[in-house]
Design a protein that fits this description.
This protein is of the alpha/beta class and about 170 residues long. It has a four-stranded parallel sheet, with helices on both faces. Helix 1 runs parallel beside helix 2. The chain has one domain: NAD(P)-binding Rossmann-like Domain (Rossmann fold). The chain is about 35% helix and about 10% strand. The longest helix has 24 residues. It is globular. The structure holds NADP nicotinamide-adenine-dinucleotide phosphate. NADP nicotinamide-adenine-dinucleotide phosphate binds next to helix 1.
Length: about 170
């Protein structure tokens, strides 16, 4: 990121893993593995945190700018009715907290900044390959949906968590 110059009016952070290669999301407590859990945390929570760390100097002053971080509805603690997926859920919940905290800090110097967590829906990517029975949207459709959501957001929604139709997701 040191080589990027900016300013960027729109930034999307879309990195993540469901589980490390060769592993799968846990179905029970007994499947928790410290190394796998640490890897899922590193990619889903610490990775976006490091991008956010470098972001303030790349955002414009005095202009609206939006930063969307793809987390996931399964990172919602309030919406967790199914259980399972300990590492991924916890890592996305941590990412949501990092996004919310960054949004507060960034808005101190950039009143027109909108920094949010986004849930893209269930999308046909490598993430969902192992779940053929679920209805999914194409990546292009998911991207269009998220761009439309970002276009509608104002600084009043800074620090929020929204799904692909722009509806707030419970924390
Ligand atoms: N697909 C879904 O249904 C769904 C649902 C909810 C949330 N999400 C979230 O949406 C985001 C995008 O997922 P996707 O569905 O587009 O999956 P994807 O196609 O597998 O994309 C994941 C991205 O993360 C990058 N990545 C993985 N490990 C990385 C690492 N160690 N360092 C840097 N980048 C890394 C990958 O880069 P490379 O291509 O270089 O490996 C890839 O660009 C993720 O955060 C995911 O949690 C997806």
């Amino acid at each position: 990121m040191n080589r990027l110059r900016g300013p960027f009016e729109t930034v999307l952070i879309a990195s993540g893993i469901l589980a490390p290669e060769g592993a799968r999301p846990e179905k029970s407590l007994a499947e928790i593995d410290a190394e796998n859990m640490a890897r899922v945390m590193a990619v889903n929570a610490i990775g976006p945190a490091l991008v956010l760390k470098n972001l303030p100097r790349l955002l414009p002053h005095g202009l609206r700018c939006v930063v969307g971080v793809l987390t996931a509805r399964v990172g919602s603690i309030g919406d967790n009715h199914l259980g399972g997926w300990y590492s991924y859920r916890a890592a996305k919940a941590a990412a949501n907290q990092i996004v919310r905290t960054a949004a507060i800090e960034i808005a101190r110097k950039r009143k027109d900044a909108v920094v949010v967590s986004l849930h893209p829906g269930t999308v046909e990517t490598s993430f969902t390959k192992a779940y053929p029975g679920h209805p999914k949207v194409a990546p292009s459709e998911a991207a269009t949906n998220l761009v439309e959501v970002l276009d509608q957001l104002t600084s009043a929604q800074n620090g929020g968590f929204f799904d692909w139709v722009g509806k707030p997701v419970p924390w």
